[in-house]
Amino acid sequence: MKLTSHDTSIIPLFMSTIKISSKVESAVWEEFRALAKESHQNISGLLTEALSDYLHHRRVRPIVGDHLADSMNENDELGKFLAR
User: Residue 49's domain spans which residues?
Assistant: First the structure.
């Protein structure tokens, strides 16, 4: 299987696909179509990339927050000392 990478994710080029139907604001859709044309991509490929990026972004943020909370808890005494 041929693979391509985008940012930190690896997306197989030959995946099973589904057909979807949805409603979006016309201005957003026209901007999306223009981006696809400018970047020489088809709508389906660009939509798949956009959804993948969105999912990655939404799933990474809670992990970052958890690590920040852990770090703050581990360094609570240092934080109090530096605040003085």
Answer: 24-83
Q: Tally the domains of the chain.
A: 1
Does 77 fall in a domain? yes
Note the pLDDT of residue 3: 42
Q: What is the pTM of this model?
A: 0.54
Cβ(32)–Cβ(46) below 8 Å: yes
Q: In whole angstroms, what separates CA 67 from the centre of its chain?
A: 19
Q: How far apart are CA 21 and CA 43, in angstroms?
A: 13
Give 23-54 as a 3 state SS string. CCCHHHHHHHHHHHHHCCCCHHHHHHHHHHHH
Q: How far is CA 26 from CA 22, 38, 57, 60, in A?
A: 12, 18, 25, 30
